[in-house]
Known about the structure:
The chain is of the alpha/beta class.
Amino acid sequence: MPDKKKIILIGSIPPPYHGSSIYFNNLLNSRVREVFDVTHLDISDHRNLDNLSRLDFTNVYLALKNQYLLFKMLQKIKPDLVYIPIASNFLPYLRDGLFIIISSYFSRAKIITHLHEGNYFRDEFYNKSNSIVKFFIKKSLNKVNTSIVLSENLKRVFESLVNKVSVCPNGVEDEFESDDNILKPKTEHFIISYLGNLFESKGILDIINAAKIVSEKYDYAEFHFAGDWSTKEGNTKEKADHLIAFNKLEQKIKFYGVITGNEKKVFLSQTNIFIFPSWYPYEGFPLAIIEAMSAGCPVISTKDTGAIPDIIVNGKTGFLIEKKNPQQLAEKIIQLIEDSTLRKQMSVRARARFEELYTLDRNINKMITVFNEALN
């Protein structure tokens, strides 16, 4: 039996919990380890979400330390492939671009990058950067063998920047595979849920404004939030608290904090409709949406945001609405409350679409294929 190819996976693991750290943790602990000889360069900063992309002493120290550790790994391991998730703003990309350049100059490894975000990389970061930054981006990406994006519509992000672009939709573990209760009414209340970090740009205030409209018509509707507040979003939390108090929604809205494991499974199993009205500029392929689909939840989310329009089939597995439009969000929630037949049809289709496209096994198999294609 031939020796396994050696690969270095560069990435951070939770905490804090956000889409790319959760995805990387799943990848790191997957069947990839059976197929390849894996070494992990752990670049985690386990402080809270406020420190992501911030210019401070700790982040600078970690960046320099990790560049050195990568150099030492390359010398010791002599990898066949290096995998590097990349970011869409300057300071994190400076670190990632240096990972690419160091891997290129100090090894013969094939280099794969993975963008967990959407069009922001091209439309805002690259196109609006000055000539020096553009040169650095082009110089580093020119050394990449394959860049992975999250959907077909995102292949344009690396047009003329990278030789090969591969599409690999995200995937999550199927926690509901043998759950016969997916399509049954959940509780005596009608529960509309959100799962993710509590940022204004994730649509948190839009949900609360929609909750006011929905609750005026349906007293039994409840809105459940699971996720963490960032201190950077202190003003958003104040606005949320004010809206809840002003509209007397204290009994209609519940916050659960960060949930994982079985707690998350119970949360989604009790959800009648899942909502994710994000306009977050770095939105890519939200794991929360496909987790909700795995639980048989119709999903209401936003048009023109990352890969979301590729995940949700509008009118079939859920609804796509305009950004920053709580009225439209409320209307779609009310439509699904009132039309139980449509809700059940969407539930069945969402679950089927998840099984067909977005399981973790399918994702890992695709990643292994992309790795092997680069190596060959």
